[in-house]
Amino acid sequence: MAVLEGKTALVTGASRGIGAAIAVRLAAEGANVAITYERSRDRAEEVVAEIEGLGRKAIAIQADSADADAVTGAVDRTAETLGGLDILVNNAGIFPKAPIGELALADLDRALAVNVRAPFVAAMAATKYLPEGGRVITIGSTLADRLVPSGFSVYSATKSALSGFTKGIARDLGPRGITAVLIHPGPTDTDMNPADGPRARTTLATSAVGRHAAPADIAATVAHVAGPAGTFITGSAITVDGGVNA
User: Fold this and answer.
1) Is 62 helix (H, G, I), strand (E, B) or coil?
2) What is the pLDDT of residues 49-93, one digit of tens each?
3) 54 part of a folded domain
4) Does 65 map to a domain?
5) Contacts of 128 (CB under 8 A, 6+ apart)
6) Which of 124, 47, 32, 49 is nearest to 86 (CA)?
7) Residues with pLDDT less than 70, the chain
8) pTM for this structure?
9) CATH code, 99
10) Residue 245 resides in a domain
11) Structural domain tally of the chain?
12) Which of 9, 15, 106, 202 is the most buried (most CB within 10 A)?
C-alpha cells in the first residue's frame, strides 16, 4: 500500500525543478496533490498531468507567493477541492544575487515576501485544516549555513530565517501531533542552477560526491519526512547536499 494513500498535499512553486519533483514523488507515494505556480501555466499543467497519470487527483493554482491573499487562497482551495490538507510543502522561492551595494530595497522586500512571509502565511492558513499527523515541510538552502561566493546576502538571510520559523511552529503545532521540518538542499540541477551552468565547476569543487543533486534526491527526503517514518522528526533541519557543507 502506498504510504501516503488518502493524504492530500499542497506544494508551492511546483511547476518545475525541486517543487515539481516533490509533487510527483508525493503522488507516487499515494497523495493527491495541489501545486501553485506564478507564471508557468503550461509547465504546471504538465505536472498535473503526470500526477493524474499516477492515478491521483491534482490541481494547479496560479498564485504569486509575494501576495499573502493568494497564498491563503491556495491553501483554502486545496482543502476545498481535494477534501482536506495533510501535508504543506513550502517550496516557492526566489534567488536574488548581487553584492549588497548593488541591491535595491525592492529586491529585499520581494525576497522577504516570497521566501519568508509566504511560508508563515501558508502555515497560518493550513492550521485550520491540518489533522493530527499533519506535516509542514519547508525547503531552505545550504546557503543558510555557509557562503563561499559573494552576492548571496539577501537569499542567505531569508533562508536562515526559516530555521527559527520551523522550530517555532514545531512547538506551536506539536501538541496537535503536527510536525515541522526544514530541508536544506545543496546545489541541485534545476533551471535556476543547471549542472552545466557557469557556477558548476565551483560547485563540484566543494561537493564530497562530485555532482549536483537531482531534484528527485530532494523529493525523496521530503517523501520520507512526509510519511510514517517522519512521525518523530520535528523542529529539525535536514541537509541534503552531497557533503557540500561538510
Assistant:
1) strand
2) 999 999 999 999 999 999 999 999 999 999 999 999 999 999 999
3) yes
4) yes
5) none
6) 32
7) 1, 194-197, 199-200, 203
8) 0.95
9) 3.40.50.720
10) no
11) 1
12) 9
CB 59 within 8 A of CB 72: no
SS3 130: coil
Q: What percent of the chain has pLDDT over 70?
A: 95
Any domain includes 246: no
Assess whether 37 carries a catalytic annotation: no
- 156: its cell numbers: 542567505
Q: Which one of 129, 152, 155, 165 is the catalytic residue?
A: 155
**All residues at 6 or more sequence positions from 184 whose CB lies less than 8 Å from its CB, including other chains:** 140, 141, 142, 144, 145, 159, 237, 238, 239, 240, 241
Strand-pairing partners, residue 180, are 136
Q: Which domain holds residue 27?
A: 8-240
3-class secondary structure per residue, 14-55: CCCHHHHHHHHHHHHCCCEEEEEECCCHHHHHHHHHHHHHCC
- Tell me the C-alpha distance between 33 and 192, whole Å: 24
Amino acid at 22: I
Based on its alpha-carbon atoms, the radius of gyration of the chain, rounded to whole angstroms, reads 17
What's the pLDDT score for residue 244? 86
